[in-house]
Specification:
mainly beta; 0% helix; elongated
Length: 107
């Protein structure tokens, strides 16, 4: 049996949007996008849009607030983490602000 496969020029493939924190593909429904693991949603669906805590999920109005311990860099400075800004109950890594302070100092 003979057959023929026609060649075509490459098609554009746009990857599925993903969470900028955890890298998971986000869920989409009725004009809204959200990341279940991070417990956040996006009100604007555009590249680089900032998320907000997902108001449809219980407990997201309360931030996580866990802060990892300071890291002594060995150079007379420490990296001090502020509390996590993601909603409480999120999965995975924390998203914490960080400051470089002299050893023995506070952020």
């Amino acid at each position: 049996m003979e057959y023929e496969i026609e060649a075509t020029m490459p098609r554009l493939v746009i990857p599925a949007p993903e969470c900028g924190h955890c890298g998971e593909v986000v869920e989409y429904d009725d004009g809204a996008m959200w990341c279940g693991g991070c417990r956040v949603m996006w009100e604007q669906i555009e590249d680089g849009a900032l998320s907000i805590p997902d108001p449809d999920r219980e407990g997201t109005a309360v931030p996580c607030t866990i802060a990892p311990p300071a890291i002594d860099s060995g150079t007379g400075w420490s990296l001090v983490h502020g509390p996590c800004i993601l909603p409480s109950g999120h999965e995975g890594e924390h998203e914490c602000p960080m400051s470089r302070v002299p050893n023995g100092g506070d952020a």
